[in-house]
């Protein structure tokens, strides 16, 4: 089938420390799928909080989360991903609930174990899984999407299901969240060729003050700097330092019909709650 993107291993084979038990079947499937269809990727998804709990070794523990288990499981996929839901899902650090920077941590950690194309799951509903948790807001959804991109994913998977309670299995995405998803998908689609370029090429660079996060791409249409405010607190006059060839005097802000001046290699801008600005230097 031409519309089949990839074969998918069973979801979260690492969950609850069961990775060693699932490793043989994952290896066998990978071998079988590659024999049938050598060119099609195999996709494997891990529990993001489990990824963060993995340790170097755990002698005498048959079902512990250890890094070598992940390294071997990663070899049974060509594309890898994780699911970590800061607002509504299970967290290994529950005291950090609503901290959207949790999104980037397993992406970075998985990359330290294997440099393969990554995807990320983004929450869109109240999963009704954790007592007292709520669903993601449109603003939080926007920040989660772009934090995933800042940390280098090549694709996104949206998770809309309600996973417990009387509405189990339903798409629980509210209309306002779905509208924001549609809006951000349009931006991602329009920038697809740019975003799929080299992640943070060394020919350019940017630094931002905390808590902002930044990534960059270079294309024939310009140099793109993606800056995300991952918190609800607005920031005023945040100064972003750019390292780019030449002495540009201004950057346009993608999709916002405005520009900001560049002086002495930096620009200043304000960020609302969970805001995302994409600066394009010609």
Question: What does this entry look like structurally?
Answer:
Helix content is 27%, strand content 25%. It contains seven helices and 13 strands. It has helices spanning 19-36, 48-53, 67-74, 104-113, 138-150, 175-190, 192-195; strands spanning 7-8, 42-47, 79-83, 118-123, 155-159, 205-207, 213-219, 222-228, 235-243, 250-253, 258-261, 266-271, 276-281. The strands form three sheets. The chain has a five-stranded parallel β-sheet. Helix 1 packs parallel to helix 3 (67-74) and helix 5 (138-150) runs parallel beside helix 6. The mean pLDDT is 96.
The secondary structure category is: alpha/beta
Helix content: 25-40%
Topology as H/E string?
A: EHEHHEHEHEHHEEEEEEEE
Estimated share of beta-strand residues: 15-25%
What is the approximate shape? globular
- Radius of gyration, whole Å: 20 Å
The largest sheet is: 5 strands, parallel
Q: What integer is the average pLDDT? A: 96
Query: What is the first-to-last residue Cα distance?
Result: 41 Å
Q: What is the number of strand segments? A: 13
Oligomer: single chain
Strand order of the largest sheet: 1-2-3-4-5
The helix tally amounts to 7
Low-confidence stretches: none
Compact overview of the structure:
This protein is an alpha/beta fold and 282 residues long.
List the keywords.
single chain; 282 residues; alpha/beta; 5-stranded parallel beta sheet; 5-stranded antiparallel beta sheet
